[in-house]
Amino acid sequence: NNSINIFLLLEDDVMATPVASAAAVNGARKFYFDDATNTLYYWSSDGADPDTHVMEVGARYDVVVCDDREHIVFERIHCHGAGGEFGRGFGLKPTFRTPTDITLRGCHISNCYYAGLWISYATDFLATNDVLLDDCQIDHCAQFGVRLQGQDTAHRQLNIVISGSEIHHNGLNTTIGQFGIFVEFTNGLQVVGCAIHDNQGQFDWSGNFYNSASSINTLFAFNIVANGTKNNIHFDVNSNGAIVKYNVSYGAVWNGIWIEEHLRANGESYMYGNTVYDCLH
After folding, report:
1. What pLDDT is attached to residue 76?
2. 177, 149 in Cβ contact below 8 A?
3. Are 265 and 237 in contact (CB under 8 A)?
4. What pLDDT score does 56 carry?
5. 209-230 burial: b if 16+ Cβ within 10 Å, else e
């Protein structure tokens, strides 16, 4: 029995592609879930009986919902298999109280249909602040590994820190895939000492790390960033006081480091001590 429209099916830990009807299950790794009859149709990767594989169905929309919470530490938990269309492995959102002082340490988030970690907003609500993601791993999520989404310049997320973590092989869905880390409307984000690699997406600006929508005062330092399908490190719209230092960037199909200022910055930004190689630009 289920309570959601299912978008996530795994065969041996590999994500299958949802389609719109049973008739559209016409090739390997495609599936359709008929909610009315509670029946799942699937064509396995080798054409064999799916019972010969390890099959997992994401029958919960989210894994951990931490909306409206304060002063909580999560340690060494595995969040796996959020199956909703916008399912979150770990989700933070203000609905009646602003989430603040939330720590994830030594956690693993994997195989979520929309995002591994999604910090989102409620309109005109005070944004989430003081979140630490330390020594964690986020991988194999269909659209975003990490999505940090403030509302606008008046409601920026404050003091989000991602340190010592590995974020890899996200954005793999060829239709909806986007980024390893996607950032919009934050203030004081720190991404330090991380390994961010092999993230991809469908857009020309897709890749490992994307800082957009006037996120200000971002520190991006001491990271190893590799094999972005399009880009490794990308600051777009207005970097506004960014410090990009002592990173190693290699293997990007397009840009190792890409800074594009559509708007004139309001604060000085600095980029120094980085090493870039084996990228097109």
Report:
1. 98
2. no
3. no
4. 95
5. bbbbbbbbbbbbbbbbbbbbbb
Amino acid at 92: L
pLDDT for res 1: 46
Instruction: Return d(Cα 113, Cα 176) in angstroms, integer.
Output: 10
What gap in Å lies between CA 155 and CA 46, rounded to an integer?
Answer: 49
Q: Residue 39 corresponds to which tokens in the numbers above?
A: 């029946």
Q: What is the DSSP string of 20-48?
A: SSGGG--STTEEEEETTTTEEEEE-TTSS
Q: Give the residue ranges of the chain where pLDDT is below 70.
A: 1-3, 262-266
CA 108, distance to chain mean position in Å, is 13
pTM of the predicted model, to two decimals? 0.95
Residue type, 262: H
Q: Are 173 and 179 in contact (CB under 8 A)?
A: no
With a CB cutoff of 8 Å and minimum separation 6, the contacts of 162 are: 133, 134, 146, 181, 189, 190, 191, 192, 194
What residue type is 272 in one-letter code?
A: Y
Distance CA 103, CA 70 (A): 10
How far apart CA 121 and CA 187 sit, in angstroms, is 14
> Per the structure block, which two tokens stand in for 111?
């195989």
Both tokens of 29, joined, read 């790794």
DSSP code of 263? Answer: S
Whole-angstrom distance, CA of residue 20 vs CA of residue 33: 9
